[in-house]
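Mods, move this if it's the wrong board.
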Amino acid sequence: MDKAVNDGNVLPGQYLVLEFNFSSITRSPKLDKAAQFLADGINGSLLDFVSTYAEYLGESFASQVSRSTTIGNLTQNLKNLVEAVHHALRGIRKKGDKSHPLFDVQGVYPF
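Not the wrong board. Structure tokens:
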């Protein structure tokens, strides 16, 4: 992301950052347990993102994603989250309130 900003391809504040911290995930030599720990860690990152940005993206966003980020397929959870963010951002821009802190945000950047 820093390179994209430094190269002028992305402006600061143009994307919401979805951070994944794989160093905090418990490791296991058993593949099924390792997969579950990874899934739990990724879902935790999704939930952290929701709690960070829900206030700005609105109640509709929060209720839409809170149901889907604790269960189910990780790929689907991530897809649902990104779609909900894009839907909320379209709604913010559609209202035309340029003073909204997310008015110029274009989407989500996984980091």
